[in-house]
């Protein structure tokens, strides 16, 4: 992994353009999400690596054309080679149907539990990459995507994805936030905690699940956290974000406070 030499500060979306978050040694990472003006905004990310392009959480069918238009400014949408699905929810991956119509050879990278459910979005035949059997995916540039289980956050088969070159952690629903005053990158973390609480207190299963997940990240140098909802958490806030999740009382902790 390269040493982080950049910054995410000052980045924001500009109309229909993708936002480049990172670039080094043949790899680049972009935000290509929707401009839906609601608190439950969805982020999609694109990793380009020489002749490959991988979508992370391609999103809802409702915003497929919008996301495709952003991708097209970077890479031919019909030649996108793969997609990572953190779990099966329609806001995460229902547009897989549209992407596979563009390129049936796209690789679908996800967990076995997600693989059981996503065919119900309407596409049963696709090239499946089992992230439990193959927890790392080698990129042409020499970097890797590492798939990290995130059980019951909020789906039993949820995964997150760590890119070894950038040190970016694509966290799916974890660290998600609900915010009508959305910004691409967090500026004030203390204020952002309020927005994260609106989502994580109800969607994350329990402190045992969140604490166990954070423990599984030990040894990784994380330069940024890129959730599927809310704002990207930049380098200066990563430690605070990890502490937040490790100590979060949520889900069953709140529903059954009298049980150990």
Principal-axes shape call: globular
Strand order of the largest sheet: 1-2-3-4-5-6-7
Mean pLDDT: 93
Rg is 17 Å
Indicate the proportion of strand residues. Answer: 15-25%
Any overview of this molecule?
With 260 residues, this protein is α/β, with parallel strands linked by helices. It is 25% helix and 21% strand. The strands form 2 sheets. The protein has a 7-stranded mixed sheet with strand order 1-2-3-4-5-6-7. A 5-stranded mixed sheet has the order 8-9-10-11-12, with no helix packed on it. The longest helix has 15 residues, at 189-203. The model has no long low-confidence stretch (mean pLDDT 93).
Features of this protein?
260 residues; five-stranded mixed β-sheet; seven-stranded mixed β-sheet; single chain
Topology overview:
Blueprint: E1 19-24, E2 27-31, E3 45-49, E4 52-56, H1 64-72, E5 82-84, H2 90-93, H3 96-102, E6 107-110, H4 112-117, E7 127-130, E8 136-138, E9 144-149, E10 159-163, E11 168-172, H5 189-203, H6 207-216, E12 224-227, H7 238-246, H8 252-255
Parallel strand pairs: 4-5, 5-6, 6-7, 11-12
Antiparallel strand pairs: 1-2, 2-3, 3-4, 8-9, 9-10, 10-11
How would you summarize this macromolecular structure in one to three sentences?
By secondary structure, the chain is an alpha/beta fold. The chain is built from eight helices and twelve strands. Helices cover 25% and strands 21% of the residues.
């Amino acid at each position: 992994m390269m040493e982080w030499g950049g910054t995410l500060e000052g980045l924001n979306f500009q109309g229909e353009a993708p936002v480049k978050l990172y670039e080094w040694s043949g790899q680049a990472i972009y935000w290509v999400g929707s401009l839906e003006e609601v608190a439950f905004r969805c982020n999609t990310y694109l990793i380009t690596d020489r002749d490959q392009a991988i979508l992370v959480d391609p999103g809802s069918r409702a915003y497929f054309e919008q996301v495709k238009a952003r991708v097209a400014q970077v890479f031919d949408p019909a030649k996108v080679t793969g997609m990572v699905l953190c779990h099966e929810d329609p806001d995460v991956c229902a547009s897989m149907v549209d992407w596979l119509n563009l390129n049936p050879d796209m690789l679908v990278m996800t967990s076995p539990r997600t693989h059981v459910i996503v065919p119900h979005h309407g596409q049963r035949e696709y090239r499946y990459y089992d992230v439990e059997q193959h927890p790392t995916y080698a990129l042409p540039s020499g970097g890797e995507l590492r798939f990290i289980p995130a059980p019951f956050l909020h789906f039993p088969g949820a995964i997150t994805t760590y890119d070894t070159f950038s040190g970016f952690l694509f966290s799916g629903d974890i660290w998600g936030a609900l915010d009508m005053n959305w910004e691409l990158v967090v500026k004030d973390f203390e204020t952002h905690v309020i927005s994260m609480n609106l989502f994580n207190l109800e969607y994350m299963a329990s402190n045992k699940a969140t604490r166990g997940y954070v423990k599984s990240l030990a040894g990784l140098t994380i330069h940024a956290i890129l959730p599927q909802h809310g704002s990207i958490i930049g380098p200066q806030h990563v430690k605070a974000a990890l502490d937040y999740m490790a100590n979060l009382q949520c889900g069953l902790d709140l529903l059954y406070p009298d049980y150990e």
